[in-house]
Amino acid sequence: MTPPMYPITSKTFPRTGILEIPCLSAVAYDGHTALLQPEGMTVPFDVSDLTPDEVEGVVREQGRDVQLRGLAALDTRWMLELPDVTFRPPYRKPLGVRIEGVWYYAWPLRWDETSGAGAHTVVGLSN
């Protein structure tokens, strides 16, 4: 059985290697929080492809109470269609998600709006 997320923290985030990231799909979205469930598959994610700035964005501590808890892969096309959610600076508005009853902020490690339909985007999950 595929876990609902790849557990990881800022301190354990690798700088190289390929991680198998679980895919999640949205079963509901109320405009603020998406309810996600596992798809039962994973996608490979090469950490080496991240730029130094992107790695810094992942491992940067967001505060004493908000920390990186894991990684998941979401459908890019679905993310592109989200109203009122932006992933590009300077006006980022994070996505709220609920996975197995736990609420997280979700944000792409790398946001590429040109990804093809059906492609997955790896997101960090913080709470």
Question: Layout of helices and strands, plus pairs?
Answer:
Blueprint: E1 6-7, E2 18-29, E3 33-46, H1 52-59, E4 68-75, H2 76-80, E5 95-99, E6 102-108, E7 120-126
Parallel strand pairs: 2-4, 3-5
Antiparallel strand pairs: 1-4, 2-3, 4-7, 5-6, 6-7
The shape is: globular
N- and C-termini, Cα separation:
24 Å
Structural class by secondary-structure content: mainly beta
Spans where pLDDT lies below 50 across 5 or more residues? none
Spatial order of the strands forming the largest sheet = 2-3-5-6-7-4
In short:
The chain has 127 residues and is mainly β. It contains two helices and seven strands, in the order βββαβαβββ.
Structure characteristics:
single chain; 127 residues; mainly beta; 6-stranded mixed beta barrel
Describe the protein.
The chain is mainly beta. It contains two helices and seven strands. The chain has helices spanning 52-59, 76-80, and strands at residues 6-7, 18-29, 33-46, 68-75, 95-99, 102-108, 120-126. A six-stranded mixed beta barrel has the order 2-3-5-6-7-4. The chain starts with 5 loop residues before the first strand and ends with a strand. The mean pLDDT is 85. The protein has one domain (6-126). β2 (18-29) and β3 (33-46) form a beta hairpin.
